[in-house]
Amino acid sequence: MTKFRRTISRPALPLFLVFGVMSAATSAADLSKYRNFQLGTDLSTVVKQAGANPSQAKVIHRRPALIQELEWRPQPLGASSQTEPAKNVVFSFYDGELFRIVVDYDRYETEGLTADDFVDAISAMYGPAAKPTAPVKVAPGSYGDQEEILAQWQDPQYRFDLIRFSYGPSFRLIGVLTRLEASAQAATLEATRLDDQEAPQRDAARIANEEEAARAKLEKARLLNKPKFRP
Fold first, then answer.
1. Helix or strand or coil: residue 131?
2. From CA 102, how far away is CA 92, in angstroms rounded?
C-alpha cells in the first residue's frame, strides 16, 4: 500500500500544486489573492487567517514607514498522504497593509517538476502567463544565487512573478500590490540609509553602555569583597 501511494503521488504533484495555489472561493484570474490571503489586507486579518500570533510579526523598519513581516509554514491538508509543496510563505506589510507575498517551494515535494509544470499549474489559477523569450536575470540573492524571472501574471493592480534560483534548482512565487511596491522599496532604502548613517553613533553608545555596565559590576564586587579582604 505504501509503495502504491508513492507511485501515484509524484504524477499528481502538478495537479496538487494547482489546488495548493487555488482557494475554493477564489475566481479564475483573480490576481489579488494567494490562496485565501488578500493583498491589501491588514496585518491582524492575515495573522488570524494564518493561525499565527500577533507577536510573531517582525518589525523590519520603523521609519520612514513601518515595514513588518510575518512568516507562515503551511501544513498539509486532509489525509497525511497529501503533501504541501509550499515550504515557507512570508507576508510583508507596509504601514500595516499586505503588499507582498513570497512563497518558497519545497524542493523535495516538487522534485522533478519543470519550470513549465510550475507555469502551467499557476496559470490554472491566474490565467495565461507572460513568458520572456529568455529568462530575465535579477540581482543575486543573499547567498549569491542567481535569480531568473521565468513568468509573470499581472493586471493594473497586482503582479505575480515566478522565480527560479540557480542553486537547487528552487522556485519562488512573489505576489505584489503594485501601488505600494515602489513606496515600500523607497522606504526600505531610506531606512537602510538612516541606519548606516547613525551606525557610528549607535556603536559608540553601545560601547559606552557596556563599559559602564562593566564598571558597575566591578564596583559591586569591590564593595562586597573589600570588607572581607585580609592580607
1. coil
2. 8
How many whole angstroms separate alpha carbon 145 and alpha carbon 185? 21
| Percent of the chain topping pLDDT 70 | 80
Q: How far apart are CA 164 and CA 174, in angstroms?
A: 11
Q: What are the boundaries of each domain within the chain?
A: 2-179
Using a 10 angstrom Cβ sphere, with 0-12 exposed, 13-18 middle and 19 or more buried, the burial of residue 168 is: exposed
Coil, strand, or helix at residue 163? Answer: strand
Please tell me the distance from the alpha carbon of residue 98 to that of residue 40, in angstroms, as a whole number: 5
In whole angstroms, give the CA distance from residue 40 to residue 17: 24
Output the pTM of the full model.
0.76
**Rounded distance, CA 78 to CA 82, Å?**
7
Checking if the pLDDT of 32 tops 60, the result is yes
Do 150 and 115 contact (CB within 8 A), yes or no?
yes
Q: Report CA dihedral (10, 13, 14, 19) to the nearest 10 degrees.
A: 160
